[in-house]
Amino acid sequence: MVYWVITVAQLSHSPWVVRENGEIRDRAKRPVFTERSKYRQCMAGLLAPPYGVMESGLNSDRMPDKENMNKSVIGSLPNSVKKDVLNVRVKTEKTVDALFTCGPAHRAPSQNQIWEPPPGHVGLKHPSLTANPNLALNPLFRYKELPSLWRLGSSPLSVRKEVLPAVEARWRRSALMSSSNPSGSLPQVPSEKVMRAGKVLRHAILSKAPHMIRDRKFHLKTYRQCCVGTELVDWLSQQSPSVHSRVQAVGMWQVLLEEGVLNHVDQELNFQDKYLFYRFLDDEQEDAPPPNEEEEKKEGEEELQDTLLLLSQSGPDAHMRMILRKLPGQRTLDDLEIIYEELLHIQALSHLSTSVKRELAGVLIFEAHAKAGTVLFNQGEEGTSWYIILKGSVNVVIYGKGVVCTLHEGDDFGKLALVNDAPRAASIVLREDNCHFLRVDKEDFNRILRDVEANTVRLKEHQQDVLVLEKSPSSGRTSNQSGTSSHYKYNVMSGTPEKILEHFLETMRLDSHFAESDPALDDFVLMHCVFFPCSKLCPVLMAQYPSMPRPLATYNARASQGSEQERLDFALNNKRRVVRLVLRWVSVHGAHLQEEEASLAFLEELYMSVSDDSRVIPALKEQLPEVEKQKVLLRQFSVGEERLQKQQPIRSSDEILLKVYCLDHTYTTIRVPMVAATQDVIAGAADKLGSAEDLLLVALSSAGDKVLLKPNDISFFFTLGINGRLFVCPRDQLDSLTPLPEQEGPTTGSIASLELMSSRDLAYHMTVYDWELFNCVHEHELIFHTFGRQNFRKTTANLDLFLRRFNELQLWVITEVCLCGQLSKRVQLLKKFIKIAAHCKEYKNLNSFFAIIMGMSNPAVSRLSQTWERLPSKFKKFFAEFESLMDPSRNHRAYRLTVAKLDPPIIPFMPLLIKDMTFTHEGNKTFIDSLVNFEKMRMIAKTVRIVRYCRSQPFNLEANQASKNHQEVRSYVRQLNVIDNQRTLSQLSHKLEPRRT
Description:
By secondary structure, this protein is of the alpha+beta class.
């Protein structure tokens, strides 16, 4: 490093240069201009400010004054070179011109000047031909880096030998990145973790498969110490069961490639599973020593699994960035699918249709900026792009007002200027370092809008839209009613309930090849309760099943002009479609239909009609048994020994015995329906208490927090806190309410019992109980919970119990740790909980797994530093791995990727599914211009189908029959006693380990 400064600053005085292999040769034997070109970038780094020449995405270059330099850094330099560094730092643009014959530092060379690529790089464009005006200003070494090298005792020669390969590799990669994507810059200096990961993997390869790193010849050229991409993927896939696919392995190697720890021999930026040559950074040096020391090999072997875990966590993001850096025309179908899946979880795009998201997947551009304070665009400028924040945050600044708001991950900005073709209404400034964006340029934005309008079909009645369809490509050839085939299909975007139903009946396939259910029809059957209740749907369905139905509008002309046989065929097909839709409707709604007399009456009427028609129409005979079967199943609901032995779903028609407490802690018991409203409970309590006062119903927590229930709240009995209770009192006595002593929870832990139970047994019985609760949750309860159960007069008690179980397990972990006064016992408890979590993960019980890990991450537990210090490193690594799955960044991407690799049965992390549905509901209107927003219904139905997929296979895990305390463990996990007052838990935690002063 020292040598670089002296050589460049005293270029005309030094007769010697150091070659790349470390030799010293006479400078006169090499043209002066080559030396200047070679070191131009390094000099630019010294002349640039510590944060780079230009931190704005526009043209607001800024160069700080000499006085703004870090004096402490300059003062730490050796006296022999301090003067030279300061002289270099204050050179004017004219001096730089003279030194490099390249023009000012912030300009590219003119056409009359010669520009040479850096050493070893072929094919780099002239800076003036690149999209990045700052190509020649990419700082590789800052003057602030010099002292650290000197303090390490690096001589000029050693700096040249040890650092130059990394410098040149980073320069070439950064320059190539700048030429292909001006904003998608790669890290200039590898992070310590990734650098170490590269060393560990290199050592592991040299130890286990040394033949992989060797000199290779290709087209008469020798590439020194290289690996092949396909071999690296093969080797990585064999090292750990956590590497599930070659695509995942590619992403893991991409992490190293992005940070320059692994490099393509031609400086390509994307790692590929092909016969391409890659070289580790340590092998860039000609005399790189092999890992001969046994100790280093042993450490590397121990670190290998940790390294693979680190890369597996970072790999998906690196793989996504790799895809987004490709030019749109270079993205494969698999690439587009990966981008599309990512867009599904971005808040700013939640309101867009599926086809628009797929269009965006093909045009989105990745953009990254390294430093806070970077200005993306200024107020008043022309709008050229729409931005979506992938990582980081930005400030929205308006002249005269300053920062008016802050936008975070998932938010978007810049769209208004494109839609209105108006100047930017505000400036956007990076709020933090290392921000990532997705960018849509104006041309692509406008094209997508035009395509959407061109592919939209509107059906009007009385000059009003009644059905809006969107034409989109089909995955296979589809046939329409006329028998012609097409590569396109029409998706319902919005419409009136009746027209949406007519459309699905018209387009339903009846041939055996299309016997499987249509996903769009499934969406209607699942979501119709939101916009088309059964009381309205049943009459409309029956109207579609007369003996001679009125032909649908689309086929009116054909039916009226055709022969008598055609009209009969048309009527028969209509009947078959109605029957098929009804069968699907009954299978999805199940027990919920049994609670509605209108639905049961409709099924009886339809059965009689199908039975009568089947006598004269043979084609309907095959459907009659199915209709009869569904009708019988509904009538016999909740009958049978098997149902009586298992956890039974709670129905809206069920009743509950409810304890309601008074101000003096006495209580009365009342019997109310599950869908009883607040006013019904108050009326029942007042009648029992003989009170004529105007009473309030209050949910009182153990911490004394009061929630006044609204008159129209229904089925709230299982939404209380774990230790919450219901109170009634006059309004003027509301402040006098106090919690019951029993609400405080246990005073002693149950570690004595836990020590006698194996971790696997505990995890097994937790999973069995959780599966019972999860299996009782009807799909429609998710919908009722999202849209408000009071709007349907239906209970969500099964879902509430399952969500309550998550909170209970989380508090159980915290309670047991905080009630354990002995340090060694607490360490054993932590180990126990980590083991239980591991077994839950093995059983695919992600709900309990997350509950336990979140309990251990609670401040009352995580602050117990003395306890955590004594935890063995093995368990600390397990816990760190488990915690990484809870990472909420990128909309819980780590968790979603983990679930995607699992096969059913699965017990999912239910709070996240609820969050997804709430997010979709609140971000999209249910009705648009009086039409049902069916795109919203489709998005919510997709989340609900995740629950259906998780339960698509039965849970048949065998219990450990050798366990002596089988029943004790089962009873224990179903009757947990917890403290749910966070203040109490914190106090107990501070008693165990007081805050250090």
